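> call design_seq(struct)
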């Protein structure tokens, strides 16, 4: 049996941030992830300045490919609205591996299956034992499944369907584009240039609302491909796009039971207007670590988190998240 003070299931942004803080405080923590890093993670890789604040790092010091945008070109139902703002794009393939390495915590490649409790300790697959257990395994997190799914079930209406691909592409247009509610999509589509000649394109929308329309996310994706070609943004390319589901919860769910903590996508913490989850994952990972270090309750702000302030955020949410 491998004995640790804390075991973190999942080495994405939530798990790596948690491990980073625990390690700094001298807590004996181990990350378990089913994949080896660097690993592919479907994500547009848009990061806000807040993410770098949380990491205590100036974006200029980030050692991998990064692009800074001074504006986003948004379309709301076809109406062009350029938004002046400072935002960044990174490649998750690089970013997550860097975060994990920066944490300084050890990681075992291990797919977590069973979790049980014995003498106030969590036993994982009869192989690992820890007093504290952090669920940072994303949508399919086993800690959520075993310890939280009954006390905090995910409402069906919180399910977001996405289709996305990241490709090497010699893009000519280096703007970041966002199309909201195009063709009736209850969500948005994106075109995000990345460093080293990569481009990320994708769409996401609320699954129950798409179903109600009698449509599928793949139909929207095919239209989006045509749109990109017609606009001359991506031409003569076959896309190898993949789908992924994640959950965005309007009400913050229960995040702690005994000495088990839920963070990031496992808890459905991405923002309700944009589905921005990297920042909330890092923030929740850090807070879970603080709760363990200082033996205090683990809390995140109650209720919906927004990426856009005020009326824009709630306006997008009203379309993106219709009941
Ligand atoms: C298409 C798409 C685009 C997105 N675009 C953006 C964006 O541009 N900006 C943004 O901020 N957010 C975006 N998000 C959301 C963002 O990707 C997530 O919120 C974020 O990755 C959550 O981080 P996490 O650490 O909670 O989970 P993850 O990054 O999913 O990491 C979970 C880890 O747990 C591991 N794991 C899972 N199951 C097990 C198991 N049984 N045993 C061991 N390990 C396991 C996985 O291998 C994985 O490494 C997007 C999401 C999608 C689907």
């Amino acid at each position: 049996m491998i004995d640790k003070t804390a075991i973190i299931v999942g080495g994405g942004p939530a798990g790596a941030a948690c491990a980073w803080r625990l390690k700094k405080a001298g807590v004996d923590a181990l990350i378990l992830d089913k994949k080896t890093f660097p690993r592919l993670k479907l994500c547009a890789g848009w990061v806000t300045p807040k993410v770098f604040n949380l990491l205590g790092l100036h974006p200029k010091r980030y050692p991998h490919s990064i692009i800074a945008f001074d504006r986003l070109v948004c379309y709301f139902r076809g109406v062009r609205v350029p938004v002046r703002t400072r935002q960044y794009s990174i490649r998750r393939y690089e970013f997550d591996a860097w975060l994990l390495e920066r944490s300084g915590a050890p990681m075992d490649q291990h797919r977590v299956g069973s979790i049980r409790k014995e003498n106030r300790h969590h036993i994982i697959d009869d192989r690992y034992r820890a007093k504290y257990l952090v669920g940072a395994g994303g949508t399919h997190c086993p800690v959520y499944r075993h310890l939280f799914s009954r006390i905090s079930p995910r409402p069906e209406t919180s399910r977001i369907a996405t289709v996305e691909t990241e490709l090497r592409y010699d893009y000519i247009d280096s703007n970041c584009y966002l199309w909201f509610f195009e063709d009736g999509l209850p969500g948005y589509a994106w075109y995000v240039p990345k460093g080293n000649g990569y481009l990320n394109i994708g769409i996401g929308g609320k699954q129950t609302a798409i179903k109600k329309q009698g449509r599928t996310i793949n139909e929207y994706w095919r239209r989006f491909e045509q749109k990109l070609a017609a606009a001359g943004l991506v031409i003569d390319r076959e896309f190898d796009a993949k789908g992924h589901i994640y959950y965005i919860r309007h009400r913050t769910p229960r995040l702690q039971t005994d000495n088990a903590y839920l963070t990031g996508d496992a808890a459905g913490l991405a923002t309700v207007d944009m589905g921005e989850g990297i920042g909330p994952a890092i923030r929740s990972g850090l807070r879970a670590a603080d709760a363990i270090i200082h033996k205090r309750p683990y809390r995140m702000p109650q209720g919906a988190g927004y990426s856009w302030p005020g009326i824009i955020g709630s306006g997008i949410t009203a379309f993106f998240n219709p009941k």
